[in-house]
Amino acid sequence: MLRIPIGSITERGLDMDETVEAALLPLLHAVSSEGDIRFTRPVRLRLHAMLAGETIRIDGTVTTAVRMPCSRCLERFDLPLSADFSATAAPQQPSMNDTGAGEDIELSADEMDVIGYSGDSVDLADEVAQQVIMALPFKPVCRDTCEGLCSQCGANLNQAPCRCPSRDEANPFAVLKTLSFSDDKR
Question: Which InterPro entries match (predicted)?
Answer without folding.
Answer: YceD
